[in-house]
Amino acid sequence: MSKLVTIYGGSGFVGRYIARRMAKAGWRVRVAVRRPNEAMYVKPYGTVGQVEPVLCNIRDDASVASVMEGADAVVNCVGILARNGKNTFEAVQSEGATRVARLAAVQGITRMVHISAIGADVDAASDYSQTKGHGEAGILAHMPDAVILRPSIVFGTEDEFFNRFAGMSRFGPILPIVGADTKFQPVHVDDVAQAAELALTSDVAPGIYELGGPDVATMRELMNTMLDIIRRRRLVLNMPFFAARIMAFSFEMGSKITFGLGPVPVTRDQVKNLGVDNVVSQDAKSFANLGIEPVAMQVVLPEYLWRFRPSGQYDAIKESAKNLRT
Asked: Are 282 and 210 in contact (CB under 8 A)?
C-alpha cells in the first residue's frame, strides 16, 4: 500500500503545493484543516481518494492525534500572521506545532517536516517570531530528527504579498510601505514544497534549513520590481516606523470596537517584523544542501501579476499594436 502523509494546514498557500507534490510522488495525502468543505480543491491533486481533506483542530490533542493515525510522516504548515480569536500565536505556532510533534512521537512516526520562518527566535522582538522559535524548540524536543524549513517571504500565484501590494497600486498614485530598507530574499512556493518533498522521501539530514531565492532586495526594490511588471508608475512612500506603529494601533483598536468587523491591514507585531532583515544566514543550511536551485522571482511574477496591469491580459497586445505601421 502507498505511504500516507498527514499535512496539517495542507490547504494553505504552502501546504497545497506540498500536497500536490506528495500526491505526484505516489503518496496518499491526508489534508488536515479546520474547514474541510472549503478545501475540496485539493482532491484533484491525485487520483480518486488519494488526497482527502479531513477535519482537525490544531489546538486539540484528540483531533490532532486522530488524523495522523496510520501515517508514515507528518508535515506542519499551520501558521498565522495575526491573532484571530482563540487562534493566538502561542496556541497555534508554539503549542500547536509542539502538539503535532509530541503526538507523532507517541504514535511512532519517524518523519516530520515543519514550515517555520526565517527570524524564528525565542528572543525575537515580535510575538510571531518568538512563537515560531518556541514551536521549533518544542518540535525538536519530541522529534529531534525533524526537518525544519525556514523560508523568507514566499511568493507564488496565491501569495498574500505581491498580490496584495499590486492590488493596492490600482487605487492611487502613492504606494505606502513600511520598512523600505529592510532586506528580503523571496522564495518561490514550489521550491519550498520541493524541499519538503525531499525531506519526506529521501535521506535528507535532519535540522534547520533557511530557504531564500537567488535575489536579495529591499522592500522598496521589491515594490519597484512589482510595479515594473504590472506596468504602473507609483510613488513608493516609506512610512516611518513610529507612524506605522500608531496606525497599526488604530487599526487594532478599531477592529476591537467593531467586534472584528474593522479591517486590520497591518498590526504592531507585523511592524516589528518589518524592521528586521529576512535573509538566509551565511552559516545556515540552505537550498544548496538539498541540491535545489531556486527560481528567480522575475521568472514567475509575470505569470500571475499580469492581471494587475492597466489592461490586464490585453496589455501586451495593446503595446504590440503600437508598433504596427499604419
From this structure: no
